[in-house]
Design brief:
The complex is a heterotrimer of chains A (286), B (368) and C (399). Chain A has 286 residues and is of the alpha+beta class. Chain A is built from 9 helices and 9 strands. Chain A has a 3-stranded mixed β-sheet. Chain A has a two-stranded antiparallel ribbon with strand order 2-3. A two-stranded antiparallel ribbon of chain A has the order 4-5. In chain A, β4 and β5 form a beta hairpin. In chain A, α1 packs across α8. The longest helix of chain A is centred in the last third of the chain and has 25 residues. Chain A starts with a helix and ends with a helix. Chain B folds into 2 domains: 226 residues, 3-Layer(aba) Sandwich (Rossmann fold), CATH 3.40.50; 89 residues, Irregular (Cytochrome-c3 Hydrogenase, Chain A, domain 2). Helices cover 35% and strands 11% of the residues of chain B. Chain B has a 5-stranded parallel β-sheet with strand order 4-3-5-9-11, sandwiched between helices. Chain B has a two-stranded antiparallel ribbon with strand order 1-2. Chain B has a two-stranded antiparallel sheet with strand order 6-10. The longest helix of chain B has 26 residues. The termini of chain B are far apart. Chain C has a single domain, classed as Formate dehydrogenase/DMSO reductase domain (Formate dehydrogenase/DMSO reductase fold, Up-down Bundle), CATH 1.20.1630. The radius of gyration of chain C is 22 Å and the shape is globular. With 399 residues, chain C is mainly alpha-helical. In chain C, α3 runs antiparallel to α13, α4 packs antiparallel against α5 and α7 packs across α8. Chains in contact: A-B, A-C, B-C.
Amino acid sequence: MSMDRRTLLKGLAVAAPAAAAGSAGASEAVKAPDDAVGMLYDATRCIGCRACVTACKKANNLPLEMYDPPDDLNGTTKNIIKIYHEGDTTSYMKAQCMHCLDPACVRACMVGSFKKRDFGIVTWDPNRCIGCRYCQVACPYNIPKFQWDTPVPKIVKCEMCLHLIKGGSQPGCCAACPKEAVIFGKYTDLLADARERIAKHPDRYWPKGDPIIFGDDEGGGTQVLYLAGLDFEKLGLPDLDSEPAGAIAQKVQHGVYQGLIAPVALYAVLGAVMWRNRRADRKEDE
Amino acid sequence: MGRRVDPKLGPVDGAPMDGVDRRDFVKVCMMAAAAVGLPASVGVKWAEAAEAGLKPSVIWLHFQECTGCTESLLRTSHPGLAELILDLISVDYHETLFAAAGNQIEDALHQAMEQHEGKYVCIVEGAIPTKDGGIYCQIGGRTAVDILQDVGSKAGAVIAIGSCASWGGIPSADPNPTGAVGAPTILEGTPVVTIPGCPANPYNLLGTVLQYVSMGTLPALDDKNRPLWAYGRTIHEHCPRRAHFDAGRFARMYGDEGHRLGYCLFALGCKGPETHANCSVNHFGEIPDCWPIGLGHPCFGCTEQGVAFHKPLHQEAALPEGAHPPIHPDHRKSIAAGWAGVAGLAAGAAIGAGLMASKKLGEKDTED
Amino acid sequence: MAHAKATPVGGPLLTRPYTWLLAFLGVWLLILVWRFTSGIGAVSGLTDGYPWGVWIAFDVVTGTALACGGYAIAILTYILNRGQYHPLVRPAILTSALGYSMAALAIIIDVGRYWGIWKIPLGGFPDMGGYNWNSALLEVALCVMAYVAVLWVELSPAFLEKWKDTSTSEAVQSFARGGLKFFDKALIWIVALGVLLPTMHQSSLGTVMLLAGHKLHPLWNTGWVPLLFLISCVGMGYAVVVWESTISSRAFKRDRHDSMLKSLAGAMVIVLALFTVIRFADVLISGKAAMLFNQGWLSLLFWIEMALFVVPIFMLRGVRNKPFSTLLNASILMMLAGGLYRFDTYIVAYNPGPNWNYFPSLPELLITFGVIALEIALYVFIVKRYPILAGKPAARSAS
């Protein structure tokens, strides 16, 4: 006998989200790798000299563009200094990849081009990327940039000068900074340094009196940490809770597809239904 | 030949005037004109006026000052330039340079004012205290305020030389115990050309004064009445070390490698980006690179009120507006409204066509 | 069940309208050359703020949903055993096969580093561990690739029949016969795949946008999005089948089977009602009710979407006694409803931050139109040469 269509659709309607809710557990917070490195940017120390912007371009063989400098991260710019200026309040802001502990770009990239590799640094593999730009959609900080004006485009973003780190030196930006506004080091050391700074100078950082370190757990935590004298949202950082960007999508996707159980089961059900339909039809024809 | 003795100024050092023939004199006048950016023809006019004995009168007032601006003027050491200037203009009152003193010099002042009323150039050096009735600077029993208002109101042009006369300078630094202000504040209503600096670059004064005496006009001025030709750019805009700034090469400490290589001094607190002046292209002492940054010390913004004697020496300057992109730069593409409208119309037309088609095709049910 | 046999429509291919279509495709090819030699930025309005635009939102996401006719009809005909819809199956499968193939073409046009795409169906990248199984987009990509293959296999009897009947070569004929026999036996398992795969990837197309996180407006950002995408694509599939049958029957002078098409209304109403209920319930239960009114343009778009889903429900009630145009109009609204929902999810409700905007450029739109034109051109070609459409054979001169 054929299945009543109402029953079938009802079944499907209930099954999918139920499966999603059922097999989705709470996502565990991802920990930083043991050898994780990072950067600590203290906006209260930055003087806006932009030595880091030039140094980054040199370290990564990007065009210098000194006379028409970039106004944002783009296909040839992996690091930028921007300014927040409102009345008497001024703060500079360094923007580059946050090297998240649980990166959305890594979750998004279907071919595994974006991966968290050595020292927890998120790097892009040109041999795998197909240029689908899902990473751009996924990144909560809008970091990966695409080279729109070439027939052979790349995805461009800060890779913490992994090539220099491997050789024992630091990222170009950290080496160039005359005020040590951005420093490089072990992730755990930098976190401790940042905590020390906000403990020693609670009125210098934001929120005054009880400052926070951006990247401590935002979006699941990042290996690039920020301290500032004003609201991070004013500096362009999104207001994120501690759940990693991909956690919800993961819950839904895994809920349905975990172990491919549901698809295989559905396939079996469909096959079985059609088998019985066909047998019933053949009996009718006889 | 011996030393020249000027009737008012006393003995004057330098090359003697006698024995200089006319052609050489005209040549030197033309060089002097060129030195301050005036056309050579003006130099010829000067020579003619000097010969005819027609020299514009200059009355130079001193108040709360260190005399640095006068000293800096005296260090224009182009051969014979000092004498030429003194011959091209008639300095009728100058407390530093005059041999006379007391009543003698005060008489000279009144005489000059009467003789050249409405025509003399009044140059002011030093700030003017205003607190407690202005008693903190008095000359000959009169307060600086009174003197300036008296002399300044009868002048053909008033020029304030140095930051003190322009806006108060170092006497006006917090807490400003004497209530020191610049000449423009005292002479409200009278246009006062300001030549700030600590000291002012002497050529900024020379160029302005010589333009006035030879052409009767003042150069174009900015909103603080500073000649645009000298104060129209910030040091940052025409600094010889600018390439180092743009490339991110900074001296981080006095004596470090970057400092010795002549790198940019922004990280040491150079106020170049906030300071309008031309020291970077018109060096002092007529020796190349003889200016603060050239000697390895960051500019402290001596021409700018609110910067000099106010911001700490090694506090970083604010870079100009527009030097950095904002947090959210404008990436919007201009969506040609017409084009968007066309697309909308096309979509609407497609839907309309669909509805019309369904009417036509669906009027009658076909038979199965 | 007895039903009219499918036969080729026949007639000349290069009619006036067809020639215009080919001319447009010539222009389209030139624009494609421009795209591939100068880069995506030269021919589109895409930016780092809006990396996905009309090529993704329409050609891939909406296009595949509109190509769900085969899926929707297969559910009715094979799963729910409504054999009377059988004549609709083959043309729907053709539309689906072409629609999905065009979506694949659009993807090749859209991605920046297309030269590596061939690696995806061949097992990923063995040098570094293969796929990222966490990615919803991977699921979409693999499923769509597999489904394109399944659709053409499902359509193969049309080609096999023609080759069996008309080929002069003995080898081809025996291959055709063998193929048809295999297909007859394996039909169930192929069709089951053809129902499973779209269920998976059409819903995943919704899940894909969940990764945008806070950049996706809360009215569209919900864990129910995969189900909503799935339900709406089924509705769009039926709507397309209605229009495709209507136009082909008119163009190629075949039976239109009015009462059969009208009877699709039952399934359409269920789908529309389910979507509406789930969407509203989700918004209300998750505490977003205020957003229905205080989000400016986005609130308005939400209501327009819902109106497009709800109005056809009333139009389709008792459609048996209404003129056929009612069914056609309701179908237009259903297609607009699903299309708008997808455009909103992928573009309009996606906000990367201040000072970014997006509107497709003219070449970008022409590329999209060209993809549609190519689909039409191929549809006409196949329908004229191969037995797709059922009903009375064509008259001597086709349109």
